[in-house]
Amino acid sequence: MHPITKSALMLKTLHIFMINKRILLPAIGLGLIVLVAVAYFLMSGTTTQKTIDASASITLSTNSVVGAAGDTTLTLTIASAMTNTDTIVFTMPDNLDVSGVAFVSETFAGAGTISTCTSAGQVITCTANGAITAGRGNIVMSGIVAKYAATGQTITSLTVNDMDAEETRIP
Fold first, then answer.
1. CA distances from residue 69 to 62, 93, 153 in whole angstroms, order as listed
2. Distance (Å, rounded) from C-alpha 171 to C-alpha 130?
3. Do 23 and 15 touch, CB atoms closer than 8 A?
4. Which residue in 41, 38, 20, 40 sits closest to 30, CA to CA?
5. What is the rounded distance in angstroms from the CA atom of residue 79 to the CA atom of residue 40?
6. Dihedral pair phi/psi, residue 52, rounded to 5°
7. 66-118: per-residue pLDDT in tens?
8. DSSP secondary-structure letter at 138?
9. Strand ranges for the chain from DSSP E
């Protein structure tokens, strides 16, 4: 049973009990209603993480040469539409220095775009600044440099964070 439904049922049961015992209901009932409303509010503002496209990939341009700068392209499929402040978070391979990452362009449909890409360690977070339609596309980033040669460039921990979700569900 959903926590809100369970709380509402408990509130109704308490309400009937209190009336039957002729105890003053308004103050206690109002307090419980406020408690249920606060619980619902806290649950409705959570973030949903969705694992997206296991076949996502990165492609290096001139930065495939150790020490050279160049654009890096992330190709992926977004399973559901994104809105303002939603994020795509992924971890880059250890052989790449991502500390200078910057957003260049993207090819997704919709009225919005990816507005920024930032890094924390090897984790890159790209943030939407409006509506982005679900589907396949690319995010092009600059400022990524190869630190040492490596075979295969594999990203890990790729998720889309829905900042406007109504409840938390991690598939």
1. 6, 16, 16
2. 24
3. no
4. 38
5. 27
6. -115, 160
7. 999 899 999 999 888 999 999 999 999 999 999 999 999 999 999 999 999 99
8. E
9. 48-51, 57-60, 69-78, 87-91, 96-97, 102-106, 114-120, 123-128, 135-146, 156-162
